[in-house]
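Task 17 of the worksheet. Students: predict the tertiary structure of the chain below and write it out as structure tokens. Keep your answer in the requested format; marks are given for formatting as well as content.
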Amino acid sequence: MKRGMLLGLALVMLLAAVSAASAASTAGFNVKVTLQSVGVSLNQTEWQLGTVVADEVTATAADYFVATNEGNVAEDFTIVAAASADWTPGDDSAADVFRLRLLPATVIKTTAVALASDVAAGGTHSFGLDLKAPSSSTSGSEQIIPVTVEAAPAA
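Model answer:
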């Protein structure tokens, strides 16, 4: 019995020594990272006005357009207009000059203006526009006015 106990004790000590000897001399860890993603989508791709009268103002509802943050970080949105084939954006209407406004009163021209700030990932921002037609036009053809909403990481 003593001999069995001694043998058992010796075995336990041997296992402890082997265990201590086989302890890791290095340790590691994983690095997990996600690249920042920035993006925006719009619920509307067109605002069809049809035929309008010179100097006439036509407006959408205040929530007609919805911009959605498609990225994985908070974003700031800006909006900018470009000239059509025959008309240019301006502060007010004139010959071949239209006025586009972010409701209620921010004029949108060829330099981006703030649309929304700090929109959460997956969040939305609703907005409306009004357009004041030129006072006259040298062209009687349909004009397509490009408007761009851009997203950037929130400041």
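Marker's comment: The two ends are 78 Å apart (CA to CA). The chain is about 15% helix and 35% strand.
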